[in-house]
Protein: Transcriptional regulator, HxlR family
Organism: Dyadobacter psychrophilus
Amino acid sequence: MYERKTTPNLNCGLDLIGEVLYGKWKIRLLWFIDQGYQRPSELQRKIPDASRRVLNIQLKELEDHELVTRKIYPVVPPKVEYSLTDFGKTLIPVIATLGQWSDEHEERLREVILKQPVSSDIDVRN
Amino acid sequence: MYERKTTPNLNCGLDLIGEVLYGKWKIRLLWFIDQGYQRPSELQRKIPDASRRVLNIQLKELEDHELVTRKIYPVVPPKVEYSLTDFGKTLIPVIATLGQWSDEHEERLREVILKQPVSSDIDVRN
DNA sequence: TCATATAGGGATAAATTGATCCCCTATTGC
DNA sequence: GCAATAGGGGATCAATTTATCCCTATATGA
């Protein structure tokens, strides 16, 4: 497993939330789990761009941070279900705010993201 | 300058907001600029853990994404001021939501972040 | 003359994150 | 026996992000 070499900054609230929410798929994982997609395979289908492996790793981190719990059913083939903890649930309105903002500004966002490379870098040979 | 080798995912709103807000210091930069700390040196003093260089790079990205504008005063020594664009200002309530959540849960967050390494990894030889 | 302040950037190294590949478990059904 | 199913993990590589180091410029004040 990867071992951190630097100590995280934990000065202000924004550092703290960064520690638990940074990770390419974490916000989506929380969101989809809240929506009822609780099994790993369901989550993979909802987030096909992420590899199985990375989702597992990020789910594990969410679990370590007590935002989700993992319940294993002792059946074959195995069955696992993730749920939000009460703590994790408090994040849902926050995520909703993020989602709402990006939905409202979707078009603008696409523009500014895709206009790369920036004007000064445009190569007229294209 | 670093050149991207993969194309970003832009499927849903959460991908989009990720594109503009990912970056260790970006949220803080937006927040402090909104608070009136507009000059690079002021921002550096507010965020001493970030190097000058990285702040410049992230400010540049915020500018490319039209969240801030950069005004250069032709004086010596040089003077530069960043301001939020109207677009950037729409993010402030979103950031406030993030900040509020993490302030409310500050103690809990510190706990779960610092309890690392997780129980199964604890080495009794310590 | 030299340090300070102010803003910036290139080159490069280090850290972190994400992706790929291949392997394991056990049962059911063909 | 072999494939499919469902969940998982080690090793390793690639991509990305952040940090470090050192350089530019000009004016002011000691």
User: Anything to note?
Assistant: The domain at 13-119 of chain A is CATH 1.10.10.10 (Arc Repressor Mutant, subunit A). Chain A has a mean pLDDT of 89.
